[in-house]
Amino acid sequence: MQSSRGGVNSIRSVFNLSARRMASANGKVMTMGSLNPQVKTMEYAVRGPIVIRAVELEKELAHGVPKPFKSVIKANIGDAHAMGQKPITFIRQVLGAVANPALLSSPDLPSDVKNRVETILGGCGGKSAGAYSQSTGVDVIRKHVAEFIQRRDGGAAVDPENVILSGGASESIRNVMKLFINRTGGRKVGFMVPIPQYPLYSATIEEFGLGQVGYFLNEENKWGLDESELERSYNESLKEFDTKVIVIINPGNPTGQVLPRENIEMIIKFAKKHNLFIMADEVYQDNVYAEGSQFHSFKKVLMSMGDPYDKMELASFHSVSKGYMGECGLRGGYVEFANLDPEVFVMFKKMISAKLCSTVLGQAVIDTVVNGPKEGEPSYGQWKKEKDAVLASLKERAVLVEQAYGSIEGITCNPVQGAMYAFPQIHLPEKAIKAAKALNQEPDFFYAMKLLESTGVCIVPGSGFCQKPGTYHFRTTILPQPELMRDMLTRFKSFHEKFISEYK
Amino acid sequence: MQSSRGGVNSIRSVFNLSARRMASANGKVMTMGSLNPQVKTMEYAVRGPIVIRAVELEKELAHGVPKPFKSVIKANIGDAHAMGQKPITFIRQVLGAVANPALLSSPDLPSDVKNRVETILGGCGGKSAGAYSQSTGVDVIRKHVAEFIQRRDGGAAVDPENVILSGGASESIRNVMKLFINRTGGRKVGFMVPIPQYPLYSATIEEFGLGQVGYFLNEENKWGLDESELERSYNESLKEFDTKVIVIINPGNPTGQVLPRENIEMIIKFAKKHNLFIMADEVYQDNVYAEGSQFHSFKKVLMSMGDPYDKMELASFHSVSKGYMGECGLRGGYVEFANLDPEVFVMFKKMISAKLCSTVLGQAVIDTVVNGPKEGEPSYGQWKKEKDAVLASLKERAVLVEQAYGSIEGITCNPVQGAMYAFPQIHLPEKAIKAAKALNQEPDFFYAMKLLESTGVCIVPGSGFCQKPGTYHFRTTILPQPELMRDMLTRFKSFHEKFISEYK
């Protein structure tokens, strides 16, 4: 395919997996020779070798091993709390009392918090979060999600039956992708994914034996999405795959672009023309910073376009891990289906039933997000203040990152319109590229590992997200708190200048 | 294979999936025709059509639809809290404060609870359960699990690196099974599973395209496990599969047997002889009721057998969903590996990294289980009392269920030595079997659906767990609280007598 999948070599070299070892028998049942081949080839760069090394470095520092830096700064993953963001009080008050209902008798708990807790527990078996929920999730929370979507989109009533709760959006995304697996031979089902993309998609496509069909985002036009590129990508893919699905990430990860409404309409028309199932990854819907940018949900645009578009199949995803919440570790997310074949829906529910249910506490967090305090309720003031402060600070850091990287020679950086990342391009000298290839590493992997070893700054090489051949990038989050962010940018700039002068 | 897989027909008839419908195109991308074939054929009877109907009946009752019963009694699933079991105070106090650390300043929180909360949060990024953990789980909790295993088994130190936390044991079980998938053609990897078995295994084997190799438990000998049957099953399987794994469920689900130590030694020797990877599902390790029965972990027995057995590959699983905790909805579990190939282990960790991490709050619950209050700590007394009361009550109900079913004509029931289930055999009249087949249903499905519709009692037909051809069973939990249990047994007995007289 047209995408660059360079990370495999990098991983091989780090883990030192040679053909010799893979063939070794060593008397074991499960060896590299008998292992699921897709597990061998799949990659997930956001937690790949650079990050594994960063964790080691942290441990070494803690044990007093001298390093040219005092701390590791992890800008590799969209993990807000790990970078010092404080949880929203309302969310944690509800969660604490759902976990320990004895707290409901506390006079310190605001009445709207108690009310939410009682409603959630009322939907749980035996009024306990320790009971399994239905595999689809707690009904009253699904209803609140449906009401939230309706409010957000200003549209018609949403059927709670179309909402399935899950342990983060990732689980729902993987579940939907699983529907398209076919082991009976024949051509693989092709998934159109943006390049660069979030590696959950490439990893899962590989693991499930599906086909990756990359369409390039236009770096020269702020990572925008061109119809001609969609057509090229789709048409080329048909040589190899039975392409049935288009994945859109909006706001973009790792690219941070926010799609204008016309762009979404174009994509929907394109999907209709080629009979594609749309997967809309909208987990950053609260993270829009750029002036003039606005989030439009695929569901809303699709429905407003009328027949035949409002009959199209769509799965859209949301999560409690991003936005102003940043509650990654609590694992709450959902998929909303539109126009899924009813018989397929029955099979989907049967499929997820073998996994029992997602964490009920994660589901409770979803409730706090889709059913937050309303004006006039006792928690509203503090909730609003905390939420606004987080989003304002993220906006500031989005600008700071763009400006900082943009001002470094040999680096270009698009505006961070939304989400939590910048994806700057590094213009690497030929000598550096040669040095990397000599080590059987992707050049941006080589660069990122050197950055980590000499400064403690942990970013993810662009090759982990796929990128246009011959271009090199990295993804950095905008999550370090302002002071740490300045520290990181200083370390980065000094490393970059040294690196360029060494390899020019 | 030798197992009876009757449930498919039952599911087809309930969902009314005919070939006609499966071929329908209906203009959609994802149809029954294009759906992942394994999703169509997999089954998970514990949440299958009978249970779906039970949920409908509950809703109908709530809306005032007249029924021949006043309530639905769900004895289909091991969901203790849903059946009225109260959570352990210590667990919920820790969990509440991990979720909402503001509670740490409360004078009502015992010092040992605070201490646990601070330790857990100290292992979390930004001291927040909202940060992602490593994919393997929070390090300090893994360490506590390793210490727990060492205490339990009285053996050598356990390496925390071999412990991987997950969202319930199910997730770990599926992850280990995933290692054995091979889509490159050739023979399927065979998994030896007990018949009857817990349908997570049959469902996952089907979903992953693996091979199910059933070995029959000996109903005439209290669901014991015979070496000759293992040999027969293994040898026959080789005609079709490359059999590499043996799954043991101890204490047994759905059969409730507890394996004596000699039996475990026999299984380990058998596995060694045929070079099998052992998966030991030990989630009911705290649920042992019968006089003279005792839980022995596979890890302990394997290690104590010395060379070459102590070099064998073993994955053993535990969970917070069962035992005295019953915290199913919180999703905490783990796998401990022994002797896994180090390179395969690296690949395993890479594979789970794409799923980010399991719920940190579920991980915190694991901590409360493996690191409960110790004698002398302030929470110890109440914790001990609550734990003992739950286990004593389960033991009473285990006896009650066995005696009650055993006293009904046409039903035989083995002792419930452990776990949370009885798996009685129903001796169905020929006329009932014919009536069922005329409806294209398994006879025990037919029986269970009639039981549900006429009494509101929800059990799972034995065909969902596989059973010896020509025998019919059902699984019932022992979880209804004593009064409800008596109600259930009364409803059951009266239905059964009517059914038998109708069809004799």
From TrEMBL, chains A, B:
Pathway terms, separated by semicolons: Amino-acid degradation; L-alanine degradation via transaminase pathway; pyruvate from L-alanine: step 1/1
Catalytic activity: L-alanine + 2-oxoglutarate = pyruvate + L-glutamate
GO molecular function, one term: pyridoxal phosphate binding
Entries under Pfam families matching the protein: Aminotran_1_2 (PF00155)
Aminotransferase class I/classII large domain location: 129-484
InterPro entries in alphabetical order: ALAT1/2-like, Aminotransferase_I/II_large, PyrdxlP-dep_Trfase, PyrdxlP-dep_Trfase_major, PyrdxlP-dep_Trfase_small
Gene3D superfamilies: 1.10.287.1970, Aspartate Aminotransferase, domain 1, Type I PLP-dependent aspartate aminotransferase-like (Major domain)
Transferase among keywords: yes
Superkingdom as given in the UniProt entry: Eukaryota
E.C. designation(s): 2.6.1.2
Protein keywords: Aminotransferase, Pyridoxal phosphate, Transferase
CDD domains, A to Z: AAT_like
Cofactors demanded by this protein: pyridoxal 5'-phosphate
Family, as annotated: Belongs to the class-I pyridoxal-phosphate-dependent aminotransferase family. Alanine aminotransferase subfamily.
PANTHER family in the record: ALANINE AMINOTRANSFERASE, ALANINE TRANSAMINASE
Subunit structure: Homodimer.
Name of protein: alanine transaminase
The organism of origin for this protein: Pristionchus pacificus (Parasitic nematode worm)
Lineage start: Eukaryota, Metazoa, Ecdysozoa, Nematoda, Chromadorea
